[in-house]
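User: Here's a protein and a ligand (nicotinamide-adenine-dinucleotide). What would the complex look like?
Assistant: Let me lay out the input and then the predicted complex.
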Amino acid sequence: MAADSTYGLLVAGAEGPAAGGESAELLDPSTNRPIARVAVGTADDAARAMEVAQRAFEGSDWAGGDGARRARSLARLARLLDERAEEFARLETENMGKTLRESRIDVGFVVRTLEYVSGLADKLEGTTIPVPGSRLNYTVREALGVTVHIAPWNYPLLLAMRSVAPALAAGNTVVLKPASLTPLTAIRLARLAREAGIPDGVLNVVPGPGGKLGEALVRDRRCRSVSFTGSSEVGRRIAALAAERLIPAALELGGKSPVVVLPDADLDRAARGIALGIFGNAGQMCWAGSRLIVHESVRETLLAKLRAIAEATRLGPGTEEGVEMGPLVSRDQEARVLEYVRSARDDGGRLVTGGAKAGGDRLAEGNFVQPTVVDGLAPDARAAREEIFGPVLSSFAFGEVDEAVRLANATAYGLFAAVWTRDLASAHHVARRLEAGMVVVNEPPLTFPQTPFGGFKESGLGSEQGARGLEGYTRTKNVLLNVALPKKKG
Ligand code: NAD
């Protein structure tokens, strides 16, 4: 372990141990050797962080202050992160396993998110509304108070900051609970808050277990909203807790996203994009394009191209130059993915490529799974319906476009969908009929801080990113003034 390998809770601008004194060991997913120890927060830590955040909301110049002041601090935080981008990318890779190239992209996305929301922090405008009589009616947008953010492990810093950054820009104070497996980059970023000019207590990070710590944060009476990114199963639990307290919940959940390939598609481009969409981040993406729905006339050609890409993919520790796919985040995740592959085979799926633990002796210590493509599964087979969260693509063939749309929509999820075609009319036609919060045409999964990100159906509620995402961290107050002059007497 490196010298700076102990991480604490970051509350009120100070880093320290958890109330119970407990800490946990974190492992490098490419070797399963320890890299750091991190404090394990308790319900007492949750209560302290919420109190600190509440006091910062009421007492600092963050919420009530000038939006331009918040804009400056968030822009400064973006700059500080940008200057240390390589250090953050390396830490993300060591902790989570993704390749350095992927971590660099994630850190760049966070920098851009901070820049984007800093530009909005002083533009939270209300409206004036015409009403009858001598009256003035206007709205103001106010911060909510203390907002709670619960993040997953697959894009640790990016998905934490995707909701934290707009909440801060809107003037809220924040308590963030990163995923237990991957809290390091979020803690390290919060260490920079003071240097960026963010008052102590405005951004607090409390790592720890979801069940106890996460629930304690959402149940806390000071919690004014919860932003949760994670599985649909836990999302339901968060929604129930939020309903009890009648607070808003933004839920970004799982997916089983379709990639529809029409017969006129550029198959080389499509194959590269599809591979990126399922083997990128070792398939651990909410919006992974995990169901290929391909026209029967090009099915064999496309599968051959995907197989060639999969078999040429260089696996290894994310920190190694030239590596294209890293390990899965944990041994548990590896076991879960391999179990899904087994179930796909039991249900009659044919392995086009992959399907096993990867790497031979060189990578045996890590959680490496081969890029995998399965063909011939029934659409209602378990591996075809459930989110695998690994590098496993299931392929289905169609004859008519209606059948493709039906297959694409035949899932409980509705996060993302892709269409590959050279025909503009077909692209619009299919995009319009897909039940997904995001549709791309001739692109792998791609998003920007300024575009909304959110799912339909069991993939979530509400959306993050963009100006509307930031609006979700405000509430609207309507003010009605009687401005009639007093009647003259006599
Ligand atoms: P998870 O649901 O197990 O955990 C997510 C977070 O919730 C973690 O911080 C965890 O500690 C916490 N948590 C767990 N139980 C909790 C509880 N009862 N109360 C409060 N917090 C609790 O998900 P994961 O395994 O970390 O991430 C993978 C999942 O996240 C996948 O389903 C994936 O699709 C989804 N995801 C969705 C998006 C999106 O934007 N839609 C993005 C990334 C990941």
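Summary: The pocket of nicotinamide-adenine-dinucleotide is lined by residues 150-154, 159, 177, 179-180, 210-211, 214-215, 229-231, 234, 237-238, 252-255, 286, 387, 389, 415, 455, 460 (CB under 6 Å).
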